[in-house]
Amino acid sequence: NNLDQLYRQVIMDHYKNPRNKGQLDVEDKLTIDMNNPTCGDRIQLHLQVEDNKIVDAKFTGEGCSISLSSASMMTEAVKGLSVDKALHMSELFSEMIQGNDYEEEDLDFGDIQALQGVSKFPARIKCATLAWKAMEKGIKGNQ
Ligand code: FES
Ligand code: FES
């Protein structure tokens, strides 16, 4: 239907024109290397965290359209968030991607909602959560 089509366009747009792809040009950054064991694809997430806030986020690496569009959307969404909010958003994303109910609360899911359909393809869920898991790992390791 139309919504599926719109969602597919949003995903392809992030895949073809990734936001925040590249290195983070700051000295004090966290780099998290994360792979999807089911396919071997891997991404590196670069985070600049200051005063418990994600000031900047970028990513590099290789993956499928779902994993890379999700990384693009995730880096956009968490920039400017406190680390607690970013972790909470990751929990909500996890619910969304499994097809469960979730409340956006005061968080802005924006383009991220376009990945909802992935819940119908369980094998792809790990693709969609790859970047979020990297973010969680980076923040938790830094706490
Ligand atoms: Fe890679 Fe569909 S996104 S197979
Ligand atoms: Fe490898 Fe999606 S198929 S991350």
UniProtKB/TrEMBL annotation:
Residues 7-127 form the NIF system FeS cluster assembly NifU N-terminal domain. It comes from the Bacteria. GO terms for biological process: iron-sulfur cluster assembly. GO terms for molecular function: iron ion binding; iron-sulfur cluster binding. Belongs to the NifU family. PANTHER family: IRON-SULFUR CLUSTER ASSEMBLY ENZYME NIFU HOMOLOG (PTHR10093). This is Iron-sulfur cluster assembly scaffold protein NifU. It comes from Pullulanibacillus pueri.
